[in-house]
Amino acid sequence: MLFSHFLLRKSKKMSRIALLSVLVIVGLSPCFGARILGVFPTPIRSHFIFASALLRGLAEKGHHVTVLSSFPPEGALENYRHIQIAKESSSDRGTYERLSTEGWSYFGTLRLLINGLRQTLQTANNTLHSSEFKQIAQEEFDLIFLEMFLNTFLIGLGDHFKCPVVMIFSAPSSEFINHLSGNPSTVATLPHFLLGKSQEMSFIMRFLNFGFTTVERTVWSVIDWRERIYY
After folding, report:
1. Are 142 and 225 part of one and the same domain?
2. 40 neighbors 48 (Cβ within 8 angstroms)
3. Could you tell me the CA-to-CA distances from 2 to 5, 10, 66 in Å, in that order?
4. What's the Cα-to-Cα distance from 149 to each of 117, 132, 196, 205, 220, rounded to whole Å?
């Protein structure tokens, strides 16, 4: 009986020692932040504002963040490396400024998207072939944050760096995003974001919704066709 009691006390003591040892080992184990790459080739500041806040926050949490963009941070940030990419010509900047400042009329927006397609694709392609990108092309990253704006072919960076890609699209959900993410297209029940926030659609609104969606799908098909030469 005394021997059994002795073994029980010894077993409890050994369990406490084992638990304490595990806690010490876990507490002393090194913890490494992720290596994160942000790629924002389009020189439109509004596309970069909220993403830059996210990337700065990740750097403050100890992750190692590398960002390619036209907008350097104000002052040095720990764990944050910014690589300045070349800015576009004045004519191209004019197109980007119109894209970001003109009113959101439906057909006006589609017209600007089509007119700005050449500049946007060329800008993204120039970024991939720039000396700035070649500086990091052979580095390793754990995650990529990618600006999605008429440059879907850049998703291939995930295959190049062998890591996941998080796409950032600075606009409400659309047929383009639904197609990329696998979301269903609910034309009959959810109004297009350019139709407003109405929860109930009349027959006329459903008809307009169908028309807007059809035009948008056609435009994105043209954009997808134009992008194929960059894959």
Report:
1. no
2. yes
3. 5, 12, 65
4. 9, 20, 22, 28, 11
Token pair recorded at residue 42: 């389009």
pLDDT tier for residue 164 given thresholds of 50, 70 and 90: very high
Position with higher pLDDT, 5 vs 110 = 110
Contact 125, 104 (CB under 8 A): no
Q: Where are the alpha helices (DSSP H) in 29-102?
A: 45-60, 90-101
Q: Which residues contact 80 (CB under 8 A, 6 or more apart)?
A: 55, 56, 59, 65, 67, 73
Among residues 171, 197, 217, the one where a domain terminates is: 171
Locate 40 and state its tokens. Answer: 């924002």
What's 51's domain CATH number?
A: 3.40.50.2000
Whether residue 196 is found in the same domain as residue 221: yes
Q: Looking at the structure, tell me whether residues 93 and 157 fall in a common domain.
A: yes
Among 207, 148, 146, CA closest to 179: 148
- CB contact set of 208 (below 8 Å; sequence gap of 6+): 195
The answer on pLDDT for 3 being more than 80 is no
Same domain? For 85 and 104 the reply is yes
Are 102 and 186 found together in one domain?
Answer: no
pLDDT of residue 99: 53
Range of the domain at 181: 177-230
